[in-house]
Amino acid sequence: MADTPQAALDERVKDISPIRKALIRPELGGIIGTVAVFTFFALLAGSSGMFNAQGIMNWTTVSAQFMIIAVGACLLMIAGEFDLSVGSMIGFAGMMVAIFGVTLGFPMWMAILITFAICLACGWLNGYIVVKTGLPSFIVTLATLFILRGFTIFIPQTVERKTIIGGIREAAEGDWLAPLFGAKILGGLFQWFGDIGLIAVFERGNRAGQPVVDGVPMLIVWAIVLIVFGHLLLTRTKFGNWIFAAGGDAQAARYVGVPVNQVKILMFMFTAFCATVFAVCQVMEFGSAGADRGLLKEFEAIIAVVIGGALLTGGYGSVIGAALGALIFGVVQQGLFFANVESSLFRVFLGVILLLAVILNTYIRRIITGER
Amino acid sequence: MKFVKTMVAAVAVAAAPFAAAADGHADLNYVLVSHAPDSDSWWNTIKNGIALAGDQLGVNVEYRNPPTGDLADMARIIEQAAAAQPDGIITTLADFDVLSGPIKAAVDQGIDVIIMNSGTPEQVREVGGLMFVGQPEYDAGLAAGMRAKGDGVESFVCVNHVISNTVVAERCRGFADGLGVDLGDSMIDSGQDPAEIKNRVTAYLTANPETDAILTLGPTSADPTILAVKEMGLDGDIYFGTFDLGTNIVEAIKDGTIQWGIDQQPFLQAYLPVVVLANYDRYGVLPGNNINSGPGFVTKDALGKVEEFAGEYR
Q1: Mean pLDDT of chain A
Q2: Contact between B113 and B103 (Cβ < 8 Å)
Q3: What are the C-alpha distances in Å from A193 to residues A55, A185, A196, A218, B79?
Q4: Which of chain A's ends, N or C, has fewer CB atoms near its CB within 10 Å?
Q5: What would you report as the CA-atom Rg of chain A, rounded to the nearest whole angstrom?
Q6: Are residues B54 and B30 in the same domain?
Q7: Residue A188 lies in a domain
């Protein structure tokens, strides 16, 4: 340091204290929001079973669902685009697994792979239409929303005369790929927790003696894997910079050689991938695909991302923030049930708390970054 | 700082209704989990039923539902209810595949479960429920179909607004079997939006003018269908039967647009499980069988009480 004193004096470099530097990150609002929400429910619903093993698993699972679709939506939003077809894609993907795996009797691994291929193709098509026509992604994916939902109702009605197809669990038995989405891990650890009395065990029935929480569902593992992947991709790679650049100012990014179109199309495909993961985990857990699955999930994904500090205009945001946003959303939604809130007012509270979270977040970001 | 104060005040205001619910008067807590989206008005009777039962018996009964009617969300709500350790859960079995897991887990955890509204006695036994309180859907449809056949009906259209609920579709199947015709393409998926339902019914009746009868599966599909029929000038001419009652349906029965309504008496489906659970928990007494809350045919001749309480308790 001693031999480069002029570096510190360079007038072009603004002096920022290390503490302030550590605080200037899109996640900060999310972190504070998370703390606030947990404090709120610990005071309000602390004794209701929300924080026993079963309760924790309940809101963690719901949050993990939001996280999976929020990671995709977050990267896409940073790249400057929206995907409103996420919810329909979830219903559609689940139905495809059921059609191929149960109705047509394909092996489950093949049904899952075909589903991924079809859904990634839909994502590619979304992206291709957006970059080729220059239409707002809002409109293009709104069309996809209707198209996919329509097929999700039409196809099973035509081939099976009903809109719920069951029997997926049975069809997936013994399959090598299905457990990657539907299994639970760490069962032994939880059995041990149950044995030493750390978590409650079933009192009766043929599962008596087993712990009430018998493992971590793959859904949660997927959520963590996608968050880590998304975060590293965004913050540690050249591609991550391209995503920011494409969303910040697409034209400027093109001038410096960023392949903006490819980045956007890839992000649409990644969003479709996340939606398909969500859907496959869901049909493997519940054993049936229904035409009404995933309704309004696209907005839940966007809400989680915005709570997490991303800008709707693109170019700013973080995957960790989106994950925290999903956690806040999941905890608030399930926590309101634990707190016994009047059911007809449920959505009012949900709306109010989410609004408070976003306002708090924006407020904190403004203080820190000094923007007006 | 002013902002922070506002926030604190807002949170305090938001918290007020919870406190009231949390320190309720009762020693017994029950949760009713339905499969209905917020938009389904029929479940209002259920809410009134549990509120009345709760007041009369001095127990707490909470109502929960998945806001969009997504059954996977409903499974999470049942898991949530079980985690909160109530004395009993009253729920529907709208999709056995999705809901049997969470319900079985709740039963095994030591929580008493009564299945209401949707499900079959076999399924209820399999998940370990105490009993089933509801209307056997296929049988109700069959009875309605036989009645319609006696009135000279040979073809029909079934307006289904809950196409994803397989149990409710059994009503159409039963009706077709009662008439002795094939269900075929007679069931239309109407969606939930009143304007769409009305237009689809109009379109179907225009395209298939030889249709003898209309069967609607609840107020959500019946109310717009009444309008469609009146607009086409078919009221009183086309044979019109419906499941469930509501204010508009009662009016239409009175003016002759609808021949009959099948009342499954949702009030009983909500009220009786609370009574059964409370007495089971307090005194250990339990009725020995499932309870059929319906079907009861409501025609023009028996409308007095129905009219008085339509949409509230009927």
Answers
A1: 86
A2: yes
A3: 15, 14, 5, 19, 20
A4: C
A5: 22
A6: yes
A7: no
The reply to whether B108 and B183 lie within a common domain is no
DSSP annotation of A102 reads I
Would B223 be classed as within a structural domain? Answer: yes
User: According to the model, what pLDDT value does residue B265 have?
Assistant: 87
Q: What is the predicted pLDDT for the residue at A1?
A: 44
Looking at the structure, do residues B102 and B146 belong to the same domain, yes or no?
no
Q: Is A342 on the interface with B (CB under 8 A)?
A: yes
From chain B, the residues in CB contact with A342 under 8 A are 17, 21
Is B64 close to A54, i.e. CB distance below 8 A?
no
Burial class (CB in 10 A: 0-12, 13-18, 19+), B26: middle
Residue of B244, B247, B297 lying closest to B266 (CA atoms): B244
- Say how many C-beta atoms besides its own lie within 10 A of residue A362's C-beta: 15
> Domain check: are B126 and B65 in the same one?
yes
Report the residue of chain B nearest A294, measured CA to CA: B70
Residues B75 and B144 in one domain: no
> Same structural domain for residues B184 and B276?
no
In a domain, A190, yes or no: no
Where residue B84 sits, what CATH number does that domain have? Answer: 3.40.50.2300
Query: In CATH, what number is assigned to the domain containing residue A94?
Result: 1.10.3470
Count up the domains in chain B and report the number. 2
Q: What is the pTM of this model?
A: 0.78
Both B143 and B222 in one domain: the answer is yes
Report if residue B41 sits inside a domain.
Answer: yes
B93 within 8 A of B126, measured Cβ to Cβ: no
How many Å apart are CA B121 and CA B129, to the nearest integer?
9
- Phi, psi torsion values for A50, nearest 5 degrees: -70, -30
Range of the domain at A65: 28-183+216-369
Nearest to B229 by CA among B159, B280, B289: B159
Q: Which A residues in the span 55-94 are in contact with B, Cβ-Cβ below 8 Å?
A: 55, 57-59, 61-62
Model confidence over B66-79: pLDDT tens digits?
888 888 889 999 99
Terminal CA-to-CA distance of chain B, rounded, Å?
53
Q: Is residue A78 part of a domain?
A: yes
Q: Residue B260: CB partners within 8 Å, gap ≥ 6?
A: B144, B147, B241, B242, B253, B297, B298, B299
Q: Is residue A91 part of a domain?
A: yes
Domain count across chain A = 1
H helix count then E strand count, chain B: 12, 12
Report CB contact under 8 Å: A347, B38.
yes
ipTM: 0.73
Kindly state whether A54 is in contact with chain B, defined as any CB-CB distance less than 8 angstroms: yes
B69 found inside a domain: yes
Query: What does the pLDDT look like over A255-302, one tens digit per residue?
Result: 999 999 999 999 999 999 999 999 999 999 888 888 888 888 888 898
SS3 B152: coil
Q: Which residues of B touch A295 (CB under 8 A)?
A: 68-70
Residue A121: the pLDDT is: 96
